[in-house]
Amino acid sequence: MYDKSLKVYGLFINKWPESFGQSLSQYYKRAVYFKANPRDEEYMKSLFEERFPTGEFIDCLADVEWTIKVKKADMVVLLYPDAIGLGFCNIERKLNRNINRRNTSIYILNGRRRFYEFNFKTRICLYCRRVLERYMIGEILVSCFIVVLTPLLWLWDQLRGRR
Amino acid sequence: MNEQIKQWWEHNPMTYANVHGQFEYKDGEFNTGELEFFNRLDEEFYSWNKPLHNIRPFDSLFPYEKYAGGYKVLEIGCGLGTMAMNWALNDSKITAVDLNDVAVLMTRKRFQLLNLDGDIHREDANALSFGDGEFDYTYSWGVLHHSPDLEKSISELMRVTKPNGEFGIMLYNRKSILHWYMTEYIEGFLHYERHFLNSLQMASRYGDGGRQEGNPHTWPVTVGEINKLIRPYSNKFRTTLLGTELDSIFKYLIPGLGMVFSIQAKKVWARRFGWSIWISGVRR
Fold it and tell me: Would you say the ipTM is above 0.85?
């Protein structure tokens, strides 16, 4: 339970499209979306209100003055609809510029219902993961491995009579 | 825990719909309990397992002909009754049991609509009420890895199987591309969930219902572990890896990879790292 006298703001942004087109780039974005599995605004708002009944939910796309509001915050909660805050880099940068870290603590509450502190270590951690997820670096490496190994395994199976 | 598992599956039955436990499919929503709904559910379930059907659903796995004509067959964990229905249509004496009342009611409804005979009732897989060796063929499809005591569940399944009777069990495979990729890599590592959850919690959270909030208990096994569990009951059994999910995995691994890879190429990986382990054999 948190101290209800604290001024808490929940920052939310939804950069996920409602639907995807048929082009290759859209197919790619749909794959990223599927893996990220983000929650919708209603879910995140409800999750925030459950944890912080006296907190204020801010949609950063709709409320352009959020940077002014958070200057007076005791706590800011970054409401990631997915697990690692894809699309939140700008918000985090603006937040760091506009608050005094001595007076304001920053936390993350994500769509997987995890709550933890946003500090330098977690920021680096999340940033690396965002790059890996957005550009499918792990997948590209594994796919190369799969493409190379498949004919060899296929041949091995043929030799062993497994079809 | 049993009660938690029972409640969860009552509220989230395996409908194979767009969202786990719901009733909306790509072509619309269906009313539960109606024939149209059961047909749509079956169509979806069969499509998830296309390589396993020849003439009849799952006939590459199930010995239908051998157990037709009044042989006693038991399904542990019947869900919404698709497989039990196929055994009833096979003229086997099917008994279908499940831990939760919704599954029992829905399966009974299905049988009623199709005018099929079967004994469908509630049972706990860890404490079956049947006598020893009561059934000629027993099977369980994608159920027992949800049991908090798999060893006990297997023991009970074997107890009620006749000596020299046969069994078939499908369990999730921990050493599979799906588990490694979707659970361990995507959720565990990329999504930082390993920081909060242990292996069992990960497998449960990102097993069935994983796109919502997960389920209370899923523990996929390995081939080595299942061999150890089965050996006391059978010296004539085989384990086969089924990778019917790999189509989807390759689609999401890199968009387009699945389209480029032929069926033969996917088979190479399915038989080594498929998500389902099928154990079939003869009871000692």
Answer: yes
